[in-house]
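Let's practice the habit of predicting before peeking. Look at the sequence and jot down your guess about where helices and strands might fall. Then scroll down.
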Amino acid sequence: KQGFHWRNFFSVYSRAFENKFLKILLIVMFCTESAWFLYSHYVPMYVNIAFRYVPHQIGALMSTAGGIYIFSVLVIIRILLRYMQEKKLLITSLSLMLLGVIFISLFPYELSFWFNMVPLVVGDSISYVTILSLFSNVAGIEEQGWVLGVARATVSLARMFGSLLTFGVLISLRTPFFISLLLVVIALMTFTLRFRGYTGREAFKNKITN
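Done guessing? Here is the structure:
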């Protein structure tokens, strides 16, 4: 049985970065999910300190976020896909996420967390599904497995990185929100400025091959 070797891990990522579109999507996913995990891991701590939330109030806030997430991936994204292609959908979802983070960062009040959680969660949920769809489009039929595996590994790295960024609270109570804001800006700018030449599934002439 072949064991795990770090060189195999890095060689897979090196191979993934050889494809222009896949490289951009990996960067966008890493930044977007790092921002999301930073937000979702830090908010319970923040509302406890800033608003004196007790466990059942924190549970209500995060359960609401979970409900919005589910509704977004089951209903909202299906409606939006009728009117826009995946590229526009991703830009729209990242813009929604950015809008939510901006208002939470600049107006860290109790009602702000409840209202601005909506565009943030909707934006992240739709962007996540859309990025996975674009990953699938980049790869050839025989490459779907390892490409989506790289995508999942990137999400795991983002989870770890986003959690570590909560230490930004040592600078100030609102620093983690501004870090999330920066990450979403990087994701949106990277995709908007670098992901050119994509007009649909047929645009990926440079398939990843063995």
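How did you do? The longest helix spans residues 20-51.
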